[in-house]
Amino acid sequence: MAALRRTSNHLLLLSRARHFSISSSSPPSTFHSFRAAKSAIITSSDPNVIADLFIAQSSASSRFARHRPIYSLVVRRLSRANRSDLVERILEHQKSSPAASPLSEGFYIRLITLYSDAGMVDQALRTFNDLISKSEKIQTEKSLCAILTAFLNNKFFDQFHDSFAAFPAKMSISAGVKSHNLALKAYCEENRVEMAVELIENMEKEARVLPDIDSFNVLLGAYLKRKDWLGFDKTMKEVLRRGLEGNVTTYKYRIMRLCKDKECARARKLLDEMVSKEIKPNAACYNTIIYGFCKVGDLDSAKILLERMSNDGYVLPCSSAYYALLRHMVEEGEFDSGLEVCKQILTRKWVPPFEAMESLVKGLVNLSKLEEAKEMVEKMKTRLKGPAVDSWGKIEAALPL
Q: What is the dihedral of CA 316, 319, 321, 322, to 10 degrees?
């Protein structure tokens, strides 16, 4: 009975939301629950209705006003509909909404970020100016970083550099390491790495700001992108000279640098070093080494590391790593090993790459393993949906089954 009531209530909410999305130009100001209001906004396809619902609920419910994901969702949907006017309407309304009071620095940063996500940099700057013009001096370096990030993410580089130079004095604050790191990112994204190097060298002398590991990670990432190994290694030596402890990003870049030089065994030792220092590897650390071993033909090491990734518990198993191993196994004619990896892929309810599956089936048939080949094909077909069914059907029709 409880399950039936939940299903009935859910259907009622969806029905009500669809009714508002197609027939109402003046949606209700209140819903009987936060879930109902959220459902109505999510299911509506009319930008005007979405904006009206959002304004009504953000004014009426403090819980709604505190729910950040719904703000991001609504701004994203209105932006995709090319309704910047509605984005501005809902965000400007927040400044006078009873549920938003008092207007803290965090509140303004939130609006700056949402405007930035919508590509509305002028409105983000206006909101920033609203903040720093307040009689209560509540702004900190966090506000500076928010507007700098808006410029950076939207590639307004000239405005970025002008603001980085002028805003700290205007705000009566000092630019710290976080805002300097954003300046480093801006230079690197402009491919002006030499300017980034100059800035990091002058941080201590001129701004009395000590670079941290994130400062050097920006340079490491830029040199990696350029394939400038001399610059990369020089920066890494400076990190060690300063006694800075690397974080997961530092190790990821070092692993990538080694694998690009086909030094996968050394990269694996760095992974071991991370774990010994209790720095949790991310998926990129594992996947980079797995891909590296595949490219140099050491498929046994790749398979062992893939199994380790699944067992370590630091990250969820990644389908792309399994796909890469399967592709290289069938390319090297290791069809028995490929069969085992394919079974693992299907057990995890993923769909193997069609071209690898086609090669695997042909290889198994050539090894007189027709039944195993048929079994893999039948299991894979249960995972297919939509156009993929027809695409695979064309391939299967040409297979020797």
A: 110
